[in-house]
Amino acid sequence: xxxxxxxxxxxxxxxxxxxxxxxGGPAGLSAAIYAGRAHLRACLFEGMSAGGQMFNTSTIENFxxxxxxxxxxLSQKMEAQVRQWGTxxxxxxxxxxxxxxxxxxxxxxxEETVLARTVIVAAGSIPRKLQVPGELELAGQGVSYCATxxxxxxxxxxxxxxxGGxxxxxxxxxxxxxxxQVTVVHRRDALRAxxxxxxxxxxxxxxxxxxxxxxxxxxxxxxxxxxxxxxxxTQAVTALPVAGVFIYIGMLPNTAFLEGLVELDEYGYVxxxxxxxxxxxxxxxxxxxxxxxxxxxxxxxxxxxxxxxxAERYLGKRGF
Length: 320
Prior knowledge:
The strands form four sheets. Strands 1, 2, 3, 4, 5, 6 and 17 form a seven-stranded mixed β-sheet that branches. Strands 8-15-9-10-11 form a five-stranded parallel β-sheet, covered by helices on one side. The chain has a three-stranded antiparallel β-sheet with strand order 12-13-14, with no helix packed on it. It has helices at 26-37, 71-84, 147-150, 166-175, 195-202, 297-317, and strands spanning 16-22, 42-45, 88-90, 94-100, 103-108, 113-121, 125-127, 143-144, 158-162, 181-185, 207-210, 213-219, 226-231, 237-241, 244-247, 251-253, 283-285. Strand 9, helix 4 and strand 10 form a beta-alpha-beta unit. Helix 4 runs parallel beside helix 5. It is built from six helices and 17 strands. The protein starts with 15 loop residues before the first strand and ends with a helix. The chain is an alpha/beta fold. The chain is elongated and about 65 Å long. The model is unreliable at 7-13 (pLDDT under 50). The protein folds into two domains: 16-127 and 251-317, FAD/NAD(P)-binding domain (3-Layer(bba) Sandwich), CATH 3.50.50.60; 143-247, FAD/NAD(P)-binding domain (3-Layer(bba) Sandwich). 22% of the residues lie in helices and 26% in strands.
C-alpha cells in the first residue's frame, strides 16, 4: 500500500482504520499479524525500527523453538510477516491520542492525524538509565537491563546489580545461580525489596552488598571491566572490578500521551490484565506498557494476539 497515511485535520473525508497499533515491538507486531489475519484495516506506528527493544538485543536465548536467535533478525522476520498480512507500518511517533464519540484520533508531532475505531497501545517501556559515563557506550557489551535475558553470558564471572527494590533483588537471586559473585550496589543503607526477598538474598553466599554507594562511571575497553563507585557518606571513590552490570533503578512506561485518557497506575502503566481491556472502550493495552508481573518477548507476543482478538470482537459487536 502506498501514498500518504496521515491527513490534515481540515480534511473531512479521512479514511478510518479498524485498528491503529501504537508501537512496533513484539506486542505491536504480534497484534498487527493477528489484525491482518482477521482482515481488519490496520496500521502500526513505530518511531524507530520495528522490533523495539528486541531489535537492540544481539542474542536471544529464551525464545521458544530457538536455542539462540538474533534480535534484529527476529524483528525483521516479524516485520515481513506483518507486511505479508497487509498491515501498514508507518514510521512516526504518536504525540496525542483522544477519543471523539466512537472514534480515536491519533496525532503525530507534525499535527497530522489518523482516525481509528479501536486502538492497541503497545508503546512499551524503557529502563531508567543511570546516566553515567560508559553506560551508553557499553550497552550490550556488559551493560544490561535484563538478567533473565543476558545472565547466561556471565557464568562464573563477577557482576554487579544496581538498585535495591524487588526487581533488583529478584534478579540478584537469579544471577547467583549462574555467576561467581553478585554485588548489589545500593545508594542507601537498607533495601526497599520485600522482607522475604531480603532474607533470601542476605542468606545467599554469592550475593554481597555495597551500601551507601552510587555509580559514577562504567569503565572498560570494548567490554565492561569495572565500576567507579562513590560512598555517599565518606565520599571515597573506588573501583569495583566486574564483567557485567545489571541496572534496576526502575522502568519508564511510554504513556505520557495517554495521561487523562485512560486509567494509569501509580507508576504510569496502563491498568489492564491479560484481557488487555482498559478503562476506555475500544482501547487495548499490550506488552510492557500494561500492568503485569513478567515483561518478556513471549508475554508481549501473547498480549498482542489477545489485544487484536479483543479489538476484532469489539468491532464485531458494533457491526464492523
